[in-house]
UniProtKB/TrEMBL annotation:
Residue ranges occupied by any Metallo-beta-lactamase domain in the UniProt entry: 33-229
SUPFAM superfamilies: Metallo-hydrolase/oxidoreductase
A Pfam family it matches: Lactamase_B_2
Coiled-coil parts of chain: none
Organism, scientific name: Falsiruegeria litorea
Protein name according to UniProt: MBL fold metallo-hydrolase
C-alpha cells in the first residue's frame, strides 16, 4: 500500500476509531481529537542503525503521520521513543507532547513547542480530553549511565466517549488494582503482549499474554487490544505466538474472547461510540 492509499484509508475511518501502526504505535481518534502513542516507525530499535531490526515494514513514515492533537510517549527505550520518527514528524509546533518526567528535553531540542512532563498520577486536560500519566512496572535507559534516569509510565485517556488505557511496557504487579480504583474502569485497554521470554529476564519488565489479560481484568477494562508484537524481534519467542496465547487466555480467564483481539499492522477499526468496543468490519493496509 502506498502512502497515498494509506492516507485515504485513514481519511475513511470515523471517530471514534484507531489504527495500529505496529508495535505500540497507534493513531487514536477520540472525541474529535487525534492522539498518537509511542510512534516507533524506524527500521531498527537502537542508535545509529544498530539494534533489533523491524521485519514487518511500518505502514507509514514519521513524515507521513497525521497532525495530532496529542503525542504520548511511555518511556525512552528505542522501540518506543524513536528519534528518526520524532525528528521527521512535520507538526511539531502544533502537537501537545505528554511524556514521563525527564523526557521533555528530547522533544524541545527537536523543535517541539508544547511539551508537558508528568509524574505518575499527574493530569493534563484540554476541554473534555483528559490525559492521566499512570504507573507501570518497567525501567528506562538508552545507553551507558542513564539507567532509570527518566520515568516510565502508562496513560489513561478520557473523552466524553469513554476511557482508554495505554500500557506502554509493563510487568505484572499489584499496582493495577490501584489504577483501576483511581483512574478506571476503562472501556478499552491497549496492552503489551509480546517480548516476554526468557522469563528469568523479562518477568520484571514485560507481561506474558496470559498476564496481560489478568492486568486488563484487574483494571476493570471491558475490551482490549494486544500490542507490542509482530513487528520487531526483541526476544527469542515466536512473535506470532502472542496473539494466539492472548485469545486463549481471555477464554480461560472468563474474559469474553470477542473482546480481546489483535489487529494487523496498518489495520484501522471503528469503535462503538457508546462503549469504545471494536465494531465488526475493518480497513486493512
Amino acid at each position: 500500500m502506498t502512502q497515498a492509499e494509506f492516507d485515504r484509508q485513514l481519511a475513511a475511518v470515523g471517530n471514534p476509531s484507531l489504527t495500529w501502526l505496529g508495535h505500540s504505535a497507534f493513531i487514536l481518534r477520540l472525541g474529535g481529537r487525534v492522539i498518537l502513542t509511542d510512534p516507533f516507525l524506524g527500521e531498527t530499535a537502537g542508535p545509529l542503525g544498530f539494534g533489533p531490526k523491524r521485519y514487518v515494514r511500518a505502514p507509514m513514515t514519521g513524515a507521513g503521520l497525521p497532525k495530532a492533537d496529542v503525542l504520548l510517549v511511555s518511556h525512552n527505550h528505542y522501540d518506543h521513543l524513536d528519534a528518526p520518527t520524532i525528528e521527521a514528524y512535520p507538526h511539531k509546533e502544533h502537537t501537545q507532547v505528554i511524556v514521563p518526567l525527564g523526557l521533555g528535553a528530547f522533544f524541545t531540542k527537536r523543535g517541539y513547542r508544547k511539551v508537558q512532563e508528568q509524574d505518575w498520577w499527574d493530569v493534563w486536560t484540554s476541554g473534555d480530553l483528559r490525559i492521566e500519566t499512570l504507573p507501570a512496572i518497567h525501567h528506562s535507559g538508552r545507553g551507558i549511565g542513564d539507567h532509570r534516569k527518566t520515568l516510565w509510565a502508562s496513560f489513561g485517556i478520557t473523552t466524553a466517549e469513554g476511557k482508554v488505557w495505554f500500557s506502554g511496557d509493563t510487568a505484572n504487579g499489584e499496582i493495577f488494582e490501584e489504577i483501576g480504583r483511581r483512574a478506571g474502569p476503562f472501556d478499552l485497554a491497549l496492552v503489551a503482549i509480546g517480548a516476554y521470554t526468557p522469563r528469568s529476564l523479562m518477568k520484571s519488565v514485560h507481561v506474558t499474554p496470559e498476564e496481560a489479560i489478568d492486568v486488563v481484568r484487574r483494571l476493570g477494562a471491558s475490551s482490549t487490544i494486544g500490542m507490542h508484537w509482530g513487528a520487531i524481534a526483541l526476544t527469542p519467542e515466536n512473535p506470532f505466538d502472542a496473539p494466539t496465547r492472548f485469545k486463549r487466555a481471555a477464554e480461560a480467564q472468563g474474559f469474553c474472547a470477542g473482546n480481546a483481539v489483535t489487529l494487523r499492522i496498518g489495520e484501522s477499526r471503528n469503535l462503538n461510540s457508546a462503549t469504545l468496543g471494536l465494531i465488526d468490519g475493518e480497513h486493512r493496509a
